[in-house]
Each structure stands twice: as C-alpha cells, then as structure tokens.
Amino acid sequence: xxTTTIGESNLRITHYKDLGYSTFFNARTGFxxxxxxxxxxxxxxxxxxxxxxxxxxxxxxxxxxxxxxxxSTRHGSHMAxxxxxxxxxxxAAMGTHQVALGGGNPNQHPDFExxxxxxxxxxxVPNYTTNGRGLTDAILEATARNCGAVAVSxxxxxxxxxxxxxxxxxxxxxTNVHFIVDRESVDTAIEWxxxxxxxxxxxxxxxxxxxxxxxxxxxxxxxxRHSDRQDEFFKLATSxxxxxxxxxxxxxxxxxxxxxxxxxxxVDACDAGRFSLYVSEDMTVYPCSFxxxxxxxxxxxxxxxxxxxxxxxxxxxxxxxxxxxxxCGGCSHKKTCMNGCPLFDELVVCGNR
Length: 353
Hints:
alpha/beta; 2 domains; TIM Barrel; 10 helices; ten-stranded mixed beta sheet; 19% strand
C-alpha cells in the first residue's frame, strides 16, 4: 500500500514501496516529480491508478470554433453533479493528484463553483481551461481558493483573450495560455516568443498545442508538419532567446526531441493510459480525450469503476502496447518519445516517418 505524507508548503509525498518509486506533488505550485528508488527505473505506468485525470464536465459552448474536437455547441449537455462527485471520489481513492476540467467551456457548467469546492475538499487539485466567457466574480473567487492553474485558450484577434488574462491575473490566479500551433499560426507563435504582446506579461507560461486533424472541419493542410518554419519554431521555443516561459502538449514532443537539443529530462512522452485518463460528460472513459470521437470507450456504470477500467480495459491497454512497441524502429528518440501519438500519425513531426 502507498504511504502519503504532507510536508511544508502543501508538498505531498507518496511512496509506492512495492513499485519502487515516489511522487512529489505541490498542490499550490503544481510542481510534480516521479522519482524511482536507487537502482530502479521510472515506472512505465502507474498500476494504482492515474496521477492526472482529464474530465469533460460539459459539452456546452457558445463560441462555435470550427476546430473544436468535441463539436461543442449551445445544445451541449452537462455532466450531472452526482456523476462528477462519483468520479472525484474514485479518483481520490486511486491517488489522483489533480484533474483538468474541460468541455465545452467548463466554467459555464451550472454547478461549477460546487465542482471546484468539492474537488479541493477531496484532496484533488482542480485546474481548467476557459475561453473566458462566463467568468463571474463568484467563479473567480472559487477559482482563487481552489485551483492550481487556469489555462486561457488564445483566439485571434485576442481581445477576449487579453481581457480574460487580466481578470485572472488581477486576482493572483496562476494563468497559462493555450495556443494552437499550425502551419499558419506558427508565424504568430514565433513573433510572440520574440516580442510578447503586452497582455502576456503576467502569464505563467505559454503552452503550445499541436493542431489536431479533428473537429467540425478537418483542415489537413493546416497541420504544423506542412510548415517550413518548424525548425525555427521548435529551436526558438526551447532556447534562451524565447522571452516567455514555454510548455508543450504531448503531441509536440516528437518535434521537440528531433529538432532541438532540449533535455529529455524536461520533456515527457504522452501519458495517456499510463499516468492519465479521460472521462467525458456522458461518463464514457478513454485513455485520451481526442479518442472520444474515434472509438466506443468504456462506460462508467454501476457495475464498473474507474480502477476496473484502468486495469481491464482493452482500449486502455492498447495505448500502453503502442507506447511499448517498436513502431519507430531504431530511432534514437524511441525511449523518450515512445512512438509519438497513437491516434494521429500526422502529429509526428520529427521527420522520421
């Protein structure tokens, strides 16, 4: 059985003696580290359960973005509060450290304040991504007292993005910006890294998300792999020349490894099905949120728990098998990249396949 201690400044240390490693998580700063015992390797997956969960609490959104992979609309449904509490209860029992709440636009869930309060009360840190709409004073107060961080989705012409960042940072809320990088937007990304706009001055980090071929409309020609500025972008984003703190989603990892000299200790391969899990608003479970429109998933019902799915799902196991396979042959980055994305081969931007 794991043992957990709470140290100074909310540092949570969990020892998995039988698995030969420990995790260190700071509930307030978001710092996380997985450290193997002397002479042992970092685990390939966490048998006790996911460390992070991605939960779609609503498919409601009034923005109507064509690239939305959930195709969220004003007619989208909300996860029932009782269902959410069940998910969090099971997550806490598995030792999940934090959840990423998404949608749709999660903060427009009618029970959002209670969702944040309940999550923190159960010892799990809530984070969420917002387009900025519906951020009432009450929601901002609940965010400040419960959340580790909030990510603001950046949309041109960026007026709404700038106002949302201001409202969050004025309350001392740790704020990141999610920027979808593709063949066209990479020009803006490079410009921001060299000359950040004024509204970015108080953000914690700029997180780049690789454009996925999914959503209401799929624009194959927009994929980042079609840009002749890939090398310039990845090298700048991982260099001291970048004037913003930078992060990447797992779908950018192949480009970071193959096109830069960034330390592999600072970049993680995809965790889907290994250390993370996704639950949709209709209580269907997948290894990755982007699989929700591509496969049936596993239903979380009265006969099935999250831990059952984590251990017994063929779908979840297929992701682990993919990451452990030798799909990319003798590539020198195999150990750290783990073959890239299991869902979209188009996101592998290393140039090796």
